Protein backbone atom coordinates (compact mmCIF):
# COMPACT_ATOMS: atom_id res chain seq x y z
CA UNK A 1 0.00 0.00 0.00
CA UNK A 2 1.22 3.49 -0.84
CA UNK A 3 0.85 6.62 1.28
CA UNK A 4 0.91 10.39 0.91
CA UNK A 5 2.78 12.98 2.93
CA UNK A 6 2.13 16.63 3.68
CA UNK A 7 4.99 18.93 4.69
CA UNK A 8 4.10 22.26 6.29
CA UNK A 9 7.20 24.48 6.35
CA UNK A 10 6.19 27.15 8.83
CA UNK A 11 8.22 30.13 9.97
CA UNK A 12 8.81 28.59 13.40
CA UNK A 13 8.15 24.85 13.06
CA UNK A 14 8.11 22.42 10.16
CA UNK A 15 5.50 19.67 10.40
CA UNK A 16 4.96 16.44 8.48
CA UNK A 17 1.87 14.25 8.28
CA UNK A 18 1.48 10.79 6.72
CA UNK A 19 -1.87 9.54 5.48
CA UNK A 20 -3.12 6.36 3.89
CA UNK A 21 -4.95 6.51 0.58
CA UNK A 22 -8.25 5.97 2.40
CA UNK A 23 -7.71 9.12 4.48
CA UNK A 24 -6.36 7.72 7.75
CA UNK A 25 -3.76 9.78 9.62
CA UNK A 26 -0.84 7.46 10.35
CA UNK A 27 1.90 9.57 11.92
CA UNK A 28 3.29 13.08 12.36
CA UNK A 29 6.70 14.66 12.80
CA UNK A 30 7.86 18.12 13.85
CA UNK A 31 11.13 20.07 13.89
CA UNK A 32 12.10 23.69 14.43
CA UNK A 33 12.45 25.32 11.03
CA UNK A 34 15.49 27.52 11.60
CA UNK A 35 17.31 28.64 8.46
CA UNK A 36 17.84 25.16 6.98
CA UNK A 37 14.36 24.63 5.61
CA UNK A 38 15.12 21.52 3.56
CA UNK A 39 16.91 19.86 6.47
CA UNK A 40 13.99 20.60 8.80
CA UNK A 41 11.54 19.13 6.28
CA UNK A 42 13.69 16.02 5.86
CA UNK A 43 13.92 15.51 9.63
CA UNK A 44 10.18 16.02 10.22
CA UNK A 45 9.32 13.57 7.45
CA UNK A 46 11.89 11.03 8.71
CA UNK A 47 10.39 11.25 12.19
CA UNK A 48 6.88 10.62 10.85
CA UNK A 49 8.08 7.69 8.69
CA UNK A 50 9.84 6.11 11.65
CA UNK A 51 6.70 6.42 13.79
CA UNK A 52 4.64 4.72 11.06
CA UNK A 53 7.40 2.14 10.40
CA UNK A 54 7.53 3.16 6.75
CA UNK A 55 10.28 4.21 4.33
CA UNK A 56 10.47 6.88 1.63
CA UNK A 57 9.77 4.16 -0.95
CA UNK A 58 6.30 3.76 0.59
CA UNK A 59 5.34 7.33 -0.35
CA UNK A 60 3.34 7.76 -3.51
CA UNK A 61 3.03 11.55 -3.44
CA UNK A 62 4.33 14.45 -1.34
CA UNK A 63 2.76 17.91 -1.08
CA UNK A 64 4.40 20.92 0.56
CA UNK A 65 2.75 23.99 2.05
CA UNK A 66 3.67 26.89 4.29
CA UNK A 67 5.94 29.84 3.70
CA UNK A 68 8.87 27.60 2.70
CA UNK A 69 6.91 25.26 0.43
CA UNK A 70 8.86 26.28 -2.70
CA UNK A 71 12.16 25.23 -1.15
CA UNK A 72 11.35 21.53 -0.72
CA UNK A 73 13.05 19.65 -3.58
CA UNK A 74 11.35 16.28 -2.97
CA UNK A 75 7.79 17.62 -3.24
CA UNK A 76 5.50 16.47 -6.05
CA UNK A 77 3.11 19.38 -5.69
CA UNK A 78 2.73 22.48 -3.55
CA UNK A 79 -0.31 24.21 -2.06
CA UNK A 80 -0.85 27.54 -0.37
CA UNK A 81 -1.17 27.45 3.40
CA UNK A 82 -4.71 28.81 3.02
CA UNK A 83 -5.79 25.88 0.86
CA UNK A 84 -4.01 23.31 3.01
CA UNK A 85 -5.44 24.83 6.20
CA UNK A 86 -8.94 24.74 4.75
CA UNK A 87 -8.68 21.06 3.78
CA UNK A 88 -7.09 20.09 7.08
CA UNK A 89 -9.78 21.91 9.07
CA UNK A 90 -12.54 20.21 7.08
CA UNK A 91 -10.88 16.82 7.62
CA UNK A 92 -11.25 17.32 11.36
CA UNK A 93 -14.60 19.14 11.23
CA UNK A 94 -16.54 18.85 7.93
CA UNK A 95 -18.94 21.64 8.94
CA UNK A 96 -16.20 24.26 9.20
CA UNK A 97 -17.08 27.61 7.62
CA UNK A 98 -14.51 29.94 9.22
CA UNK A 99 -10.89 29.10 10.02
CA UNK A 100 -8.48 31.02 12.24
CA UNK A 101 -4.81 30.06 11.99
CA UNK A 102 -2.46 31.74 14.48
CA UNK A 103 1.13 30.95 13.59
CA UNK A 104 4.46 32.10 14.91
CA UNK A 105 4.79 35.01 12.46
CA UNK A 106 1.35 35.39 10.85
CA UNK A 107 -2.34 35.22 11.63
CA UNK A 108 -4.82 34.14 8.96
CA UNK A 109 -8.62 34.14 8.90
CA UNK A 110 -10.64 32.59 6.08
CA UNK A 111 -14.26 31.85 5.28
CA UNK A 112 -15.07 28.66 3.38
CA UNK A 113 -17.88 27.82 1.00
CA UNK A 114 -20.06 24.72 1.02
CA UNK A 115 -17.39 22.66 -0.75
CA UNK A 116 -14.54 23.88 1.44
CA UNK A 117 -13.14 26.35 -1.10
CA UNK A 118 -11.71 29.55 0.37
CA UNK A 119 -14.13 32.38 -0.39
CA UNK A 120 -12.57 35.18 1.62
CA UNK A 121 -9.37 35.61 3.62
CA UNK A 122 -7.37 38.19 5.50
CA UNK A 123 -3.79 38.08 6.76
CA UNK A 124 -2.08 39.85 9.61
CA UNK A 125 1.57 39.51 8.65
CA UNK A 126 2.80 43.06 9.21
CA UNK A 127 2.94 43.26 13.00
CA UNK A 128 4.12 40.71 15.56
CA UNK A 129 1.46 41.84 18.06
CA UNK A 130 -1.05 39.68 16.19
CA UNK A 131 1.01 36.47 16.16
CA UNK A 132 2.30 33.75 18.41
CA UNK A 133 5.70 35.47 18.45
CA UNK A 134 4.20 38.21 20.63
CA UNK A 135 3.21 35.69 23.29
CA UNK A 136 6.60 34.00 23.09
CA UNK A 137 8.43 37.32 23.43
CA UNK A 138 6.23 38.36 26.37
CA UNK A 139 6.91 35.04 28.09
CA UNK A 140 10.66 35.41 27.53
CA UNK A 141 10.64 38.89 29.03
CA UNK A 142 8.87 37.50 32.09
CA UNK A 143 11.44 34.73 32.39
CA UNK A 144 9.39 31.83 31.00
CA UNK A 145 9.74 29.54 28.00
CA UNK A 146 7.02 29.01 25.39
CA UNK A 147 6.17 25.59 26.86
CA UNK A 148 5.37 27.30 30.17
CA UNK A 149 2.81 29.76 28.75
CA UNK A 150 -0.13 27.38 29.11
CA UNK A 151 0.44 26.42 32.77
CA UNK A 152 1.33 30.03 33.64
CA UNK A 153 -1.92 31.64 32.46
CA UNK A 154 -3.94 29.09 34.40
CA UNK A 155 -2.86 30.93 37.57
CA UNK A 156 -4.09 34.33 36.36
CA UNK A 157 -6.50 36.03 38.78
CA UNK A 158 -6.71 39.61 37.52
CA UNK A 159 -5.57 39.89 33.86
CA UNK A 160 -4.09 43.28 33.00
CA UNK A 161 -5.11 44.99 29.75
CA UNK A 162 -2.60 45.30 26.92
CA UNK A 163 -4.05 47.59 24.27
CA UNK A 164 -1.02 48.46 22.14
CA UNK A 165 -1.76 48.07 18.43
CA UNK A 166 1.95 47.53 17.72
CA UNK A 167 4.30 44.93 19.19
CA UNK A 168 6.71 47.66 20.29
CA UNK A 169 4.03 49.60 22.17
CA UNK A 170 2.56 46.39 23.59
CA UNK A 171 6.00 45.43 24.89
CA UNK A 172 6.24 48.82 26.59
CA UNK A 173 2.93 48.11 28.30
CA UNK A 174 4.27 44.76 29.51
CA UNK A 175 7.33 46.51 30.96
CA UNK A 176 5.09 49.05 32.71
CA UNK A 177 2.92 46.31 34.20
CA UNK A 178 6.03 44.54 35.52
CA UNK A 179 7.32 47.75 37.11
CA UNK A 180 3.91 48.31 38.71
CA UNK A 181 4.05 44.90 40.38
CA UNK A 182 1.58 42.95 38.21
CA UNK A 183 1.90 39.18 38.45
CA UNK A 184 3.45 37.35 35.46
CA UNK A 185 0.34 35.15 35.08
CA UNK A 186 -1.92 38.23 34.87
CA UNK A 187 0.38 39.90 32.32
CA UNK A 188 0.54 36.74 30.22
CA UNK A 189 -3.23 36.39 30.32
CA UNK A 190 -3.57 40.03 29.25
CA UNK A 191 -1.25 39.42 26.30
CA UNK A 192 -3.37 36.44 25.31
CA UNK A 193 -6.57 38.50 25.55
CA UNK A 194 -4.96 41.12 23.31
CA UNK A 195 -4.10 38.49 20.72
CA UNK A 196 -7.64 37.09 20.82
CA UNK A 197 -9.20 40.53 20.28
CA UNK A 198 -7.05 40.96 17.17
CA UNK A 199 -8.07 37.48 16.03
CA UNK A 200 -11.77 38.22 16.30
CA UNK A 201 -11.39 41.51 14.43
CA UNK A 202 -9.62 39.69 11.61
CA UNK A 203 -12.35 37.05 11.48
CA UNK A 204 -15.02 39.75 11.26
CA UNK A 205 -13.28 41.12 8.17
CA UNK A 206 -13.93 37.85 6.31
CA UNK A 207 -17.60 37.95 7.40
CA UNK A 208 -17.15 34.99 9.71
CA UNK A 209 -19.90 32.47 10.25
CA UNK A 210 -20.05 29.26 12.33
CA UNK A 211 -18.76 26.62 12.55
CA UNK A 212 -15.40 28.04 13.59
CA UNK A 213 -12.23 25.94 13.58
CA UNK A 214 -9.04 27.13 15.26
CA UNK A 215 -5.60 25.89 14.22
CA UNK A 216 -1.96 26.64 14.95
CA UNK A 217 0.37 25.86 17.83
CA UNK A 218 -1.04 28.65 20.01
CA UNK A 219 -4.30 26.70 20.23
CA UNK A 220 -2.54 24.13 22.42
CA UNK A 221 -3.18 26.49 25.34
CA UNK A 222 -6.57 25.75 26.96
CA UNK A 223 -6.94 29.35 28.16
CA UNK A 224 -6.61 30.62 24.58
CA UNK A 225 -9.40 28.31 23.44
CA UNK A 226 -11.62 29.09 26.43
CA UNK A 227 -11.43 32.85 25.86
CA UNK A 228 -12.01 32.39 22.12
CA UNK A 229 -15.18 30.46 22.95
CA UNK A 230 -16.27 33.33 25.21
CA UNK A 231 -16.01 35.65 22.20
CA UNK A 232 -17.43 33.34 19.52
CA UNK A 233 -19.88 31.04 21.30
CA UNK A 234 -20.07 27.28 21.49
CA UNK A 235 -19.55 26.46 17.81
CA UNK A 236 -15.76 26.59 18.13
CA UNK A 237 -13.80 23.51 17.07
CA UNK A 238 -10.21 22.78 18.03
CA UNK A 239 -8.35 19.67 16.84
CA UNK A 240 -6.85 17.47 19.58
CA UNK A 241 -3.95 19.16 21.39
CA UNK A 242 -1.30 16.87 19.88
CA UNK A 243 -2.65 17.40 16.35
CA UNK A 244 -3.68 21.07 16.24
CA UNK A 245 -0.25 22.11 14.94
CA UNK A 246 -0.50 19.61 12.10
CA UNK A 247 -3.75 20.81 10.52
CA UNK A 248 -2.09 22.33 7.44
CA UNK A 249 0.27 19.36 7.03
CA UNK A 250 -2.72 17.02 7.12
CA UNK A 251 -4.48 19.21 4.56
CA UNK A 252 -1.41 19.01 2.33
CA UNK A 253 -1.38 15.20 2.60
CA UNK A 254 -5.06 15.15 1.59
CA UNK A 255 -4.34 17.40 -1.39
CA UNK A 256 -1.46 15.10 -2.38
CA UNK A 257 -3.89 12.18 -2.51
CA UNK A 258 -6.43 14.15 -4.55
CA UNK A 259 -3.76 15.29 -6.98
CA UNK A 260 -2.49 11.75 -7.38
CA UNK A 261 -6.02 10.49 -8.04
CA UNK A 262 -6.57 13.14 -10.70
CA UNK A 263 -3.34 12.21 -12.46
CA UNK A 264 -4.29 8.54 -12.34
CA UNK A 265 -7.71 9.31 -13.83
Strand order of the biggest β-sheet: 3-2-1-4-5
Residue runs with pLDDT of under 50 for 5 or more positions = none
Major β-sheet profile: 5 strands, mixed
What's the alpha carbon Rg, rounded to whole Å?
Answer: 19 Å
Just give the CATH class: Alpha Beta
Instruction: Provide mean pLDDT, rounded.
Output: 89
Structure explained in plain terms:
The chain has 265 residues and is an alpha/beta fold. It has one domain: Nucleotidyltransferase, domain 5 (2-Layer Sandwich). 40% of the residues lie in helices and 21% in strands. It has eight helices and ten strands. The chain has a five-stranded mixed sheet with strand order 3-2-1-4-5. Strands 8-7-6-9-10 form a five-stranded mixed sheet, sandwiched between helices. A hairpin with a 4-residue loop joins strand 6 and strand 7. Helix 2 crosses helix 8, helix 3 packs antiparallel against helix 6 and helix 6 packs across helix 7. The longest helix has 22 residues. The two termini are 18 Å apart. The relative contact order is 0.18. The model has no long low-confidence stretch (mean pLDDT 89).
Amino acid sequence: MKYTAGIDVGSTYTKAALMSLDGELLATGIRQTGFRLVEAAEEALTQALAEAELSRDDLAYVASTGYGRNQIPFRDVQATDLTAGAWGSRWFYPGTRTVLDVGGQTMKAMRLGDTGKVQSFRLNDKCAAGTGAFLEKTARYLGYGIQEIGPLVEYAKDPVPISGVCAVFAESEVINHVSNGAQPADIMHGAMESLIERSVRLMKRVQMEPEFTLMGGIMRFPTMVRVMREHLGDQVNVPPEHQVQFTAAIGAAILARRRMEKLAA
